[in-house]
Amino acid sequence: MDTIVAISTAIGSGAISIIRLSGQDAFDIVNKSFRGKDLSSLPTNTIVYGKLYDKDEYVDEVLVSVFKEHHSYTSENVVEINCHGSMFVANKILEMMIDNGARMAEPGEFTKRAFLNGRIDLTRAEAVMDVINSQTEGSLKCANVAMRGDVYNLIKNFREKLIKCIAKIEVNIDYPEYEDEFVVTNEYLKPILLELKDELASILDKSKMSTIIKNGINTAIIGSPNVGKSSLLNALLGEEKAIVTNIAGTTRDTIEGKVNIGGIILNLIDTAGVRETVDEVERIGVLKTNKVLNEAELIILILDNNRLLNDVDKELLEKTKNKNRIILMNKIDLEKKNDYKGDVLEVSLLDENFIPIIENKIKDVCNISNINSIDATYIGNARQLSYIKKALKSIDDALSGINAGYPVDLINIDITNSWKDLGELIGEGNPEELINNLFTNFCLGK
Predict the structure, then answer these.
(1) What is the CATH code of the structural domain delimited by 129-212+376-439?
(2) Fewer beta carbons within 10 angstroms: which end of the chain, N or C?
């Protein structure tokens, strides 16, 4: 493979920037500009001080890390140049390395090479980006479980159980004359497949929580105009993100923010108050509110304690009755006039002590507990879950065949399909299009 190069640190000024190279000629390419020890002569996992020159022009003093093939992230020769954190300096060094013979890396190409060179499987590759994107302790735990190989080992264990069944069936089919060979029957296969079915189904049962841990909960704050939606958003975020006035229709568009509730990210959306309006801008905001309402995973519906239910309140109560929702009865510091009889959380958004009460209610409604028992069965990756669903369906098909009395050679087709699907999950099928699409979602330099 050719030698690739990219800036691996975030865009912007900082204390240091890192320029990473990977490939057979990485040492020679850096040596052309490096004044210091010969990098190719150094032992692996070495850091050395030196200076970089563009021909005879001094550029920067640097620390260079050397990782030799089979001992690096990509399993290739890798050099990481630690320079001062000016983007100009980093880009200058990047240009020098390209002039010296390196090629600009594509997004995710370093991790792609780690996968193609057999250093990591596909679940660990995807976990790299999950670590980078993690926003809570729970999402980091999920990512690290996969990073250390637990998900890979779990799926590998499932496949080993299946391949043992496949191998025994194949021997029975291909070598019937071997009288000493164990004869595989439907009665032998059924308990094995039932156990696998339960294990895969358990992963899917946890997938909703796993996805919430990873991506958070899309939460819509809705209600009639001037009931306190923007006040709630600002209070949860701890900042004045939305304008708050006593004038109905102040919020004319959706306003978004994120907040950490008990280790779970709520993707908050403060919506325009729902009402009939002749204002075109406000009308568009109301239409967007209805769209958000349909897509939200959690609804926080705010009612006004100081006002009777109006037609909009009644409409929103009806629309959200089958959704995960919390009903806040706001303005309890004012005279009670609201006649709603359902389950509500009574608050005054003027009192900052309401925040822990709402946080606890959100945890209860969304079944969020303290996340201390995360293991490999907490899979929130949509691609991985799709293959688990396929593998589970094939096992269900095999069990249906067993119950119908089909011969084992037909049952073996479904067992083999399940084994292949789980192989695709960890990347052992290695379809080129899937690999290319997956790694283009990575950041440059990773």
Answers:
(1) 1.20.120.430
(2) N
